[in-house]
Structure prediction request, 149 residues.
Amino acid sequence: MNGGGEAAEPHARKKFVVAKVEEIAPGTSRCVDAGGRKIALFNIDGRFFALADKCPHEAGPLSKGAMVGLSLADVPGDYRLERSGEFVRCPWHGWEFEIATGQSYCDPVGTRARSYDAKVEPGAALAKGPYVAETFPVSVEEDYVVIEI
Ligand code: FES
Prediction:
């Protein structure tokens, strides 16, 4: 019996190596596969972010959307653009989502694109596995984008 308030075992997440860093230039995006899931992977000034490649409106491909900024205005007709390239505009009907969080600004409570953790890891670290057997020299010098689901 568990009467001590122990936390439940956290759900184990899987890592997927989805692309070489050099394949996705800053300011661009592409669709990658992570264990059968389509993921929209974005590079914002060298930082990588991952959203489900399925718009919450009608499933448009967010990886094909334009990376845009946030238009703000204090008074009508006096607009300014901030946070250039930090939002994606769905190519089907134009809904926009914050790439880092998946947050919709048109419906912040009810609409969000699903986001995943994306990070860069050196190939040498990814080449290590949990088992040790006969060894051979291996060199992986490039960096890779890894998504955890
Ligand atoms: S499917 Fe994305 S805005 Fe409609």
Observations:
- Residues 55, 57-60, 90, 92-95 surround FE2/S2 (inorganic) cluster (CB under 6 Å).
- The CA atoms of residues 16 and 35 lie 7 Å apart.
- The beta strands are 15-20, 29-34, 37-44, 47-52, 66-73, 79-89, 96-98, 115-122, 143-148.
